[in-house]
Structures are given as C-alpha cells and as structure tokens.
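Action item from last meeting closed. Structure (136 res):
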C-alpha cells in the first residue's frame, strides 16, 4: 500500500485539509518519522519569515489502527497548484505558460526554500510540496 492523500472537510474549522495516511510500517520507518519531524519544525521555526507562508503546514497528526497495522496520519493544509498543473492548463489550450507567471512562481518557491534553509536548517532535495501557496 502506498501513501494516500485524500481531501477531507475539517468540521471544527470549516476548512479543507489534506490527510496523508502513511503506510503501516511508517511508525517504524525512519523516513516517515523524519517527515513528521520536518513538518513540525517548518511550522514553528520562524513564522515572521516571508517564506513561512509558502511551506505546507502540519495541522495535526494521529495514529490509526487498520487491518494492515498502525498508520501514521498527517493532517495538513491544502496545497495550491504546482507548475506542472499550470503548464497542463495552458497546454490544453495550446499555449505556453507566460514568463511572468513562471517568474512569480519561481520567486515564491525560492522564498520558501530560503525559509527552509535559513530558518529551519533544512535542505530540500526533492520536488514534493512545491506549489504550496503560489499567488499568480
């Protein structure tokens, strides 16, 4: 079973959230525990930094006992579109993404990466979660 992301409605705050249900071995796997620790760190390191709002925020986490074992579940805010989604939208209309949109997108990604590096001491080595909150 792979990680699963689903869309839920948080009744107490009337907001959409993303729920990531990790594989049952997540509680014993260092990778998944690291993801929880990193999300906890990025949420609290320096909320005044402009890049803080460009990084996905962990709202809560819990364990769920299922038929295949205990799953670590991460409750996060919903992500915005990523550059691939934007590109697909333009390609469907046989257009290219205007350079102004690409520049705005990349500027915000770099601000988020600066926050991870300077405020959190984290080096982002992949593309997951890029597109958290991009204002076009």
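Sequence:
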């Amino acid at each position: 079973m792979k990680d699963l992301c689903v869309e839920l409605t948080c009744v107490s705050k009337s907001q959409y959230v993303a729920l990531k249900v990790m594989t049952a071995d997540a509680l014993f796997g260092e990778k998944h525990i690291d993801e929880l620790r990193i999300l906890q760190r990025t949420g609290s390191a320096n909320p005044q930094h402009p890049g803080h709002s460009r990084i996905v925020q962990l709202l809560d986490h819990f364990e769920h006992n299922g038929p295949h074992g205990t799953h670590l579940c991460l409750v996060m805010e919903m992500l915005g579109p990523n550059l691939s989604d934007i590109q697909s939208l333009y390609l469907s209309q046989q257009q290219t993404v205007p350079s102004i949109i690409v520049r705005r997108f990349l500027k915000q990604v770099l601000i988020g990466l600066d926050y991870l590096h300077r405020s959190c001491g984290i080096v982002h080595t992949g593309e997951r979660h890029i597109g958290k909150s991009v204002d076009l």
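Note appended to the action item: The chain has three helices and four strands.
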